[in-house]
């Protein structure tokens, strides 16, 4: 079994969000970078669990990004990837990134490609579907469970107000979210082992960008909370009905 | 050059999210001086012509039973055929569970730039620039789509449903339908409940509730409000509540009309999933709880006393007692 896990970096979940250069660039000053939580907790850890169940499994990691992503990829290797490839280019266009990942995937003939549900900075939830289309593979988005029965994957995905279970013959591309696995922390042995695991640097292939970011902005701040005394709950309900027109 | 809206269905019924995209599509079409058409895949048990009241004039219906369950690969192939036949240059999805699976594939297939999670009408005065949330609702970005054919997927609850008059012409569309590789074997629906991502009102509770045995009163409040239930991450992690109720940065992102947060501190990761709610009510015994800063209305007090009173007051308002 060969698994490719797509790893992206994202700002720490508590990072202050600000912009520079006339609001055209994210202000990365002082920002701590982490592995995008969906990629780490759900995609990567599920891949590791599959390897634990079948030690012949190989886990490759791929990331598209500049040299500053390397600490993130090292951490992912420490958790349990076997080797990593970094496509040496920064881009914010999903199609461009997906084209790079698809190229790496083509070389590796993977049985399973895992992505996170979305990046918590750009929130595209697009890369997985794009990679699948580029490779002409089936795609299940927003998976909450993934099991293997031979070469068939049994995948549960979120639907409105419930879940749907489907069977797909491998190879398959899956975007992962909560439910797939439980978060882990790397141990010392893993961290040591990661130092000697291969990390290839690949130059990007030519690909189009279909979108571009014009600028960013911050949402308007709320006017402030209107407090209602604890013994006047019916007053809150009146406000919600008459003023906010919410109930 | 028309606008094409993907009308998403579940078990033969048109989803509420589809009414949002139809209303949005009609407005964009008006802005562009063109018309809006729709596409529906699979068996439908509703009168599609009635969707005309949301502004759609023509609906392409591909009735093939192989489309009764989502296989994004097959769906994208069929929708691409409808796009080609109708000459649509802007395709609109809901950024819901199905839109997230199909739109990226269609984007590649048609080489059409995609903006996912739009929160406003596109600016078409000079090209096509779409506003979307980024950094989990902590900021927004304006994205320019550079390709001739464009795809927008609209955030659920970001655009109001506008119903007027009219009926749509429903035309059967014969497409080459691929064989689904994703074979759906079962659908587990939490019956009778309001789906979280579609809910107008969400009642959410956190660790302040102390334990799963105390959720009865939260459920009661949700019931009288016809609301969906949600919870904070530690609550789902401790298995007090199912994980599909976990909202936040690493859970589900929601944008209901009304979000009622009870015994939740308001950590930044929690807010990231709920900060697009129109009205936020916070009930917390700690006046310093960060959530109050993001709230519109609040009560400082003990959840165990306030929730039953809240339920009673709503019942009274609705004439239920
Ligand atoms: C990378 C990362 C991602 C995360 N993602 C998420 C996410 O997606 N969603 C999420 O929710 N969290 C997430 N978290 C966790 C988040 O940081 C908080 O720890 C969590 O939201 C706290 O949950 P809580 O408010 O229920 O509990 P607490 O922080 O323990 O707060 C409980 C609150 O209840 C109040 N309270 C206690 N008793 C009562 C009472 N009787 N009546 C009224 N109020 C009472 C207290 O004053 C307190 O404010 C994430 C954390 C990290 C590091
Ligand atoms: N630059 C990147 N390199 C590798 N994988 C990525 C990159 N960007 C996104 N991904 C993967 O695609 C998923 C969805 O990203 P997005 O479509 O941007 O929300 C992420 O959770 C990652 O698994």
Which terms summarize this structure?
A: 247 residues; nine-stranded mixed β-sheet; two-stranded antiparallel ribbon; B: 321 residues; Rossmann fold; 2 domains; seven-stranded parallel β-sheet; binds adenosine monophosphate
Describe this structure in words.
In chain A, the strands form three sheets. Chain A has a nine-stranded mixed sheet with strand order 11-10-9-12-8-1-6-7-13, sandwiched between helices. In chain A, strands 2-5 form a two-stranded antiparallel sheet. Chain A has a two-stranded antiparallel sheet with strand order 3-4. Helix content of chain A is 28%, strand content 31%. Chain A has one domain (2-216): Rossmann fold. The longest helix of chain A is centred in the first third of the chain and has 17 residues, at 37-53. By secondary structure, chain A is of the alpha/beta class. Chain B is α/β, with parallel strands linked by helices and 321 residues long. Chain B has two domains: 3-172, 3-Layer(aba) Sandwich (Rossmann fold), CATH 3.40.50.620; 196-317, Rossmann fold (3-Layer(aba) Sandwich), CATH 3.40.50.1220. Chain B has a seven-stranded parallel sheet, with helices on both faces. In chain B, α2 packs across α3. The model of chain B has no long low-confidence stretch (mean pLDDT 95). At the A-B interface, α1, α3, α4, β9 and β10 of A face α2, α3, β7, β8 and β9 of B. The complex binds flavin-adenine dinucleotide (FAD) and adenosine monophosphate.
In terms of topology, how is this protein built?
The complex is a heterodimer of chains A (247) and B (321).
Chain A: E1 2-6, E2 9-11, E3 19-20, E4 25-26, E5 33-35, H1 37-53, E6 58-64, H2 70-79, E7 83-87, H3 94-108, E8 112-116, H4 127-135, E9 139-149, E10 152-159, E11 162-169, E12 172-176, H5 188-195, E13 199-202, E14 211-217, E15 226-227, H6 233-242
Helix pairs in contact in A: 2-5, 3-4
Chain B: E1 2-6, E2 9-10, E3 13-14, H1 16-32, E4 36-41, E5 58-62, H2 72-86, E6 88-94, H3 97-110, E7 113-118, E8 129-134, E9 139-145, E10 150-154, E11 169-172, E12 183-189, E13 201-205, H4 215-225, E14 228-231, H5 233-237, E15 258-262, H6 268-274, E16 279-284, E17 297-300, H7 303-317
Parallel strand pairs in B: 1-4, 1-6, 4-5, 5-11, 6-10, 7-10, 13-14, 13-15, 15-16, 16-17
Antiparallel strand pairs in B: 2-3, 8-9
Helix pairs in contact in B: 2-3, 4-7
The complex binds flavin-adenine dinucleotide and adenosine monophosphate.
């Amino acid at each position: 079994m060969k698994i490719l896990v797509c790893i992206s970096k994202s700002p720490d979940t508590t990072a202050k969000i600000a912009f520079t250069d006339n609001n055209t660039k994210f202000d990365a000053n002082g920002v701590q970078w982490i592995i995008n939580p969906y990629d780490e907790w759900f995609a990567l850890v599920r891949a590791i669990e599959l390897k634990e169940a079948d030690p012949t499994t190989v886990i490759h990691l791929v990331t598209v990004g500049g040299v500053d992503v390397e600490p993130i990829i090292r951490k992912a290797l420490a958790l349990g990837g076997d080797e990593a490839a970094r496509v040496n280019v920064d881009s914010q266009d999903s199609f461009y990134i997906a084209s790079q990942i698809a190229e790496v995937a083509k070389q590796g003939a993977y049985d399973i490609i895992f992505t996170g549900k979305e990046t918590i900075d750009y929130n595209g939830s697009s890369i997985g579907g794009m990679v699948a289309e580029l490779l002409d593979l089936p795609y299940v988005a927003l998976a909450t469970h993934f099991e293997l029965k031979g070469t068939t994957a049994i995948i549960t995905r979120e639907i409105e107000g419930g879940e749907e279970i489907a069977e797909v013959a491998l190879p398959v591309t899956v975007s992962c979210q909560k439910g797939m696995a439980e978060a882990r922390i790397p141990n010392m042995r893993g961290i040591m082992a990661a130092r000697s695991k291969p990390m290839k640097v690949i130059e990007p292939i030519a690909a189009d960008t279909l979108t571009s970011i014009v600028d960013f902005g911050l949402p308007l701040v709320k006017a402030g909370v209107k407090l209602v005394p604890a013994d006047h709950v019916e007053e809150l309900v009146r406000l919600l009905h008459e003023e906010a027109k919410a109930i | 050059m028309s606008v094409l809206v993907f009308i998403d269905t579940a078990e033969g019924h048109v989803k509420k999210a589809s009414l949002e995209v139809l209303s949005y599509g009609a407005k964009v079409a008006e802005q562009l001086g063109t018309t809006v058409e729709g596409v529906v895949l699979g068996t439908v048990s509703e009168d599609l012509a009635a969707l005309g009241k949301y502004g759609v004039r023509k609906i392409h219906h591909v009735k093939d039973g192989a489309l009764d369950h989502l296989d994004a690969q097959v769906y994208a192939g069929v929708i691409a055929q409808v796009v080609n036949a109708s000459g649509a240059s802007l395709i609109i999805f809901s950024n819901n569970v199905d839109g997230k699976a199909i739109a990226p594939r269609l984007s590649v297939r048609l080489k059409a730039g995609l903006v996912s999670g739009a929160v406003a009408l596109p600016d078409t005065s000079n090209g096509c620039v779409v506003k979307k949330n980024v950094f989990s609702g902590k900021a927004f970005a304006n994205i320019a789509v550079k390709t001739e054919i464009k795809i927008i997927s609209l955030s659920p609850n970001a655009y109001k449903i506008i119903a007027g008059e009219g009926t749509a012409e429903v035309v059967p569309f014969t497409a080459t339908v691929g064989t689904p590789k994703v074979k759906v074997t079962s659908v587990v629906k939490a019956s009778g409940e309001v789906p979280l991502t579609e809910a107008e009102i969400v009642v959410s509770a956190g660790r302040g509730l102390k334990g799963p045995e105390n959720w009865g009163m939260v459920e009661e409040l949700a019931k009288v409000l016809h609301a969906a239930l949600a919870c904070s991450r530690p609550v789902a992690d401790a298995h007090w509540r199912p994980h599909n109720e976990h909202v936040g940065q690493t859970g589900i992102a929601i944008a209901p009309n009304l979000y009622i947060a009870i015994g939740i501190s308001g950590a930044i990761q929690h807010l990231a999933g709920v900060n697009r709610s129109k009205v936020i009510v916070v009930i917390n015994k700690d006046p310093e709880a960060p959530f109050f800063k993001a709230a519109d209305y609040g009560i400082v007090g003990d959840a165990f006393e306030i929730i039953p009173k809240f339920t009673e007051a709503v019942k009274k308002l609705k004439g239920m007692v």
